[in-house]
């Protein structure tokens, strides 16, 4: 579109020059590469944000979602996300993207893209971990998720006790009883499941 506007003689020269500059920028391989990385990251962040806005989201379930987002962003440092894969596939086939000719990248452009890619995804992953778990509650709550409990009965009975007490302390929750009562109920949950039936809990 901007390429067409840049050649439109009915427009003022200043406007044509501006359109030409925008067209040149938007058809540079490095620019498109960086935008593809950003789009892939935004899709991951959007999924995490939408989950955290759900009314049924808890610290226990949030831990899993945060871990998924961090792992996905970490993987994108080496593996293409959907947008980057689409860009690379079309460019390698025709040196175009969405039907528009794209400038050929120099070796310097490729190095810049790799530096941007690594730093961008690393910073995002670290920022998520720091902002969403600055008090350690989300990471500690992983011990409360039954899917993380050890299958061995002896290991499971005491698993997560320290994490539970740490969460209780950080939240300053007054349970009205000693820690021994809190741990006893947690042990019962791990032994018999949430229904209280006398059957040992097992991971699905």
UniProtKB/TrEMBL annotation:
Specify the domain of life of the species encoding this protein. Answer: Eukaryota
Name-wise, this protein is: Uncharacterized protein
